Amino acid sequence: MKTMLGAAAWLAAGVGLGVGALAGFTTWTLNGPRRPWPNYTFTPFEMRVHSDDVAFTAADGVALAGWWLDQPESSTVVICAHGHRGNKSDMLGIGSGLWRAGYSVLLFDFRGNGDSGDGPQSLAHHEQRDLTAAVDLVRERRPDARIAVVSFSMGASTTILAAADDPRIEAIVADSPFATLSDVVATRYRRHRLPSEPLIPVADLVNRLRYGYAFAQVRPLDKVDALSPRPLLLLHGTADKVIPYDHALQLAEAAAPGPVELVAFDGADHCGGYFTDRPAYIALVSDFLERSLGTRPATDRA
């Protein structure tokens, strides 16, 4: 009997250690600093687009960096927000496309990525300060311009959360956003055939203790309705394995009856809509911005 109890205790201890290790690894993948080396990226030079380097600072002191693609005659500035562990060079396709369509564009790096400084990182929590700082920069450079945000994955969820409290953002394009952080983590566990329980509660606890925020604080689903009456365009691939298409359906339902549009890319994986037809994607976004803001972009400079 004592032998059985001892074995059970060792088994329970082993399971507990395993759960703790998995939870710790989960939170590190969400928040831990990781910069690629060597940090070689394309720039606006390769896209034959003139740009200015810009530097600005988030409210908590993190130094941020970006590229300003100017169209002086444009009445709209589009901020492009990249995804988790990405950088501003990821936005060169859509950014240069919208610049050629006549919009001024700001591409920037979230904290801990690209040319921006290090600081507390997360999955769409701390990054809200960075997007707000980008809006501040646009207001300084172009006080009378209307501001839209075109965003992807984590950047899209960050945009929904930040824009809910920032009316200066007048139109939102959110490509492949997640509805809740806990569901993103659960999806990842399912992909590796791991049980969500008890992993999610333990990972949430570790995240709060180590990184200072709870999963429940990152729920775009709870804030998307605050965007109304501002227009929202949701874009999502139906075969998304990172953030399932169901997240877009949840967000669209929660945003209604506000002005929300949902465009599905049949068979596309995560953030794959742009790559199904690049010119059509840029035209789709440009048309939405024109209809939503009631302004026409400046004359094409391509």
Task: Label this structure with key terms.
single chain; 302 residues; alpha/beta; Rossmann fold; 8-stranded mixed sheet; 8 strands; 41% helix; globular; DNA-binding_regulatory; Hydrolase_4; hydrolase activity
How would you explain this protein's 3D organization?
It is a single chain. By secondary structure, this protein is an alpha/beta fold. It is built from ten helices and eight strands. It has an eight-stranded mixed sheet with strand order 1-2-4-3-5-6-7-8, sandwiched between helices. Strand 5, helix 4 and strand 6 (169-175) form a beta-alpha-beta unit. 45% of the residues are buried. Mean pLDDT is 90; it is low at 4-18.
Structural class: alpha/beta
SSE order: HEEEHEHEHEHHHEHEHH
Q: CATH class, anyone? A: Alpha Beta
Which superfamily, in CATH terms, is the homologous superfamily?
A: Alpha/Beta hydrolase fold, catalytic domain
The total of helices stands at 10
What is the CATH topology? Rossmann fold
Mean pLDDT: 90
* SS elements, strand count: 8
Fraction in beta strands? 15-25%
Task: Trace the largest sheet across and list its strands.
Answer: 1-2-4-3-5-6-7-8
Give the overall silhouette.
globular
Could you say what the CATH architecture is?
Answer: 3-Layer(aba) Sandwich
Question: Roughly how much helix do the residues carry, as a percent range?
Answer: 40-55%
Distance between the terminal alpha carbons, to the nearest Å?
Answer: 81 Å
Number of structural units classed as domains: 1
Main beta sheet: 8 strands, mixed
Rg, please? 21 Å
Name the poorly predicted regions: 4-18
